[in-house]
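User: Can you predict the 3D structure for this chain?
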Amino acid sequence: MNFFDSYYETGAKMRSKRSRQEFFSAIIEFYYEGTEPTFKTEAAQIGWEGIKYTLAGSRKQRLNRLNPSSDGISDENQTETSPEPSENQAETTTEPEPNREGTSGEPGPNQTETQVIVKVIEPNGSTPYSPPQPSFADQCLMALNGELGRDYTSMPAKCRRELSAAEGRVTVDEVRAMVAYKRDDWRGTKFANGLTPNTLFSPEHFSQYLGQAAEAAGAAPAAEWGGATWE
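Assistant: Here is the predicted structure, written as structure tokens:
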């Protein structure tokens, strides 16, 4: 199995054990059995969207190795129809070159098992395809889950709109830093119950909390976050 580094890196970023189990189980079941996964955690679903195309290509390569005939009939049941070469016709079939990468069969001495694929080419060979990336709002939700060890899979529409509007002027790392700041700021208080997407990403508080985190880190003046001030 071509288990790409990106698969592990994607799963390792999921702080929830349940999400990681769902994600890695889906990889194994799809690769070996072709089973389309269903997820109960959004983190696993989002991670799957980013790797499913390369995994499908890897599965296709495996099936081709197991059954190299183009029409799906095994070689044992096929009758050779290729004529014997004539006396003046040179044999053109040769053994595969041992060091050539990308050929089917066993890897050559210089061919490694671990591969990195950046793009997948569509079957017609004309249009390069890049796997879709999670939306900015979904990336922020994943960052919150990672910092808090939660498995939130959704948020109110107003929060999603607020995050979408912030894309381009706020980074996911800044959102992650804000979540970590409020977690520490509210630890041991009744406000700790407010560590949810509904509160942290709400239009009423999102910019304010970003400003507090940035100011505490000395990264930006309060004026950059709407001119608000805090005690």
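The longest helix spans residues 42-66. Helices lie at 5-12, 17-33, 42-66, 136-148, 157-166, 172-186, 197-200, 206-217.
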